[in-house]
Design a protein that fits this description.
Layout lengths: L1 E2 L2 E3 L8 H4 L5 E4 L6 H8 L1 H9 L6 E7 L6 E2 L11 E6 H9 L9 E8 H4 L3 H4 L10 E7 L3 E5 L4 E8 L1 E7 L37 H6 L2 E6 L3 E4 L4 E6 L4 E8 L9 H11 L5 H16 L22 H15 L2
Parallel strand pairs: 1-12, 2-3, 5-9
Antiparallel strand pairs: 3-13, 4-6, 4-7, 7-8, 8-15, 9-14, 10-13, 10-15, 11-12, 11-14
Helix pairs in contact: 2-3, 3-4
Protein name: Cupin-like domain-containing protein
Pfam families: Cupin_8
Organism: Pseudoduganella lurida
Length: about 325
Amino acid sequence: MLPIAELRGLTPRDLNARILTSTQPLLLRGLVNHWPVVRAARESKEAASAYLRRFYRDTTVTALLGGPDIGGRFFYNGDLSGFNFRPVHARLDAVLEELAGHYANPVPPAIYVGSTTIDTCLPGFRDENDVDLQGRDALASIWIGNRTRIAAHYDLPDNLACVAAGRRRFTLFPPEQLKNLYVGPLDLTPAGQPISLVDLHAPDFERFPKFAEALEHAQVAEMEAGDALFIPSMWWHHVEALEPFNVLVNYWWRQSPDYMDTPTTALMHAIMTVRDLPPAQRAAWRELFRHYVFETDEDTSAHIPPAARRSLAPMDEDGTRAMRAQLLKRMNR
């Protein structure tokens, strides 16, 4: 595995389009060293936990709980019919107390609060701990837990992940390694996104032989409180929290307009309608997708008068809304 390209000495004011639209991951050492939560975490786990409690206002969060036997790896059960953890709704202060009770436990239960909107559960936190993303409309989330592992998965948005407490190890795979990651079900997932079935700590190369090639293209970074990592859209990332108490703040944003649907919808619809066609028909549809989607350019519809191009014209909000209505009408027949 290769180290992720690293930049040092940056402050949030130095974030620019070159960084925030990079197609390669970037490790930004010390980017959020100035955050008060980071300073508290460097003092102690207890100080970091107390700092979070300052902003808590009685809202509940969803926590994932797994037994000590899962070793912090949130995953499927044995036959992939369900999962090896259970979600519970709890007060955040109760979760923080539970985490504190296991700081010294060498084999603790796995406790994980994932992807919780900061402004909802910790109002005011971002007044003191935030990053200016140059006008991007980002979703800011917080992740809190003990020593946990999240299998390799991708996210559609670009991602800036900032370690606020503890340490984390990110292992990233470029999108073209999909074929070597042995991805599980698309429509039954631990947290919304499909995941690799390979255990990065103990890969079974007899069952997953192509994963060896994926490792040759992997990039890895070990991060401490104050470090940030830019993860480009669609890069697969395996995430490990390495301390008894860990906090991550991340920002997600898309480079496409809000009115565009997620491409996952198109993927699932194509699986339903195209994948099982006879080979000759599937090849014909591959050519249509190539022509109208993946290699489209100005020549694709140049022979049609602009006013008559309809769905072949550049997409805007009104055109997207009309197309969505048309598709819904067809699917509800």
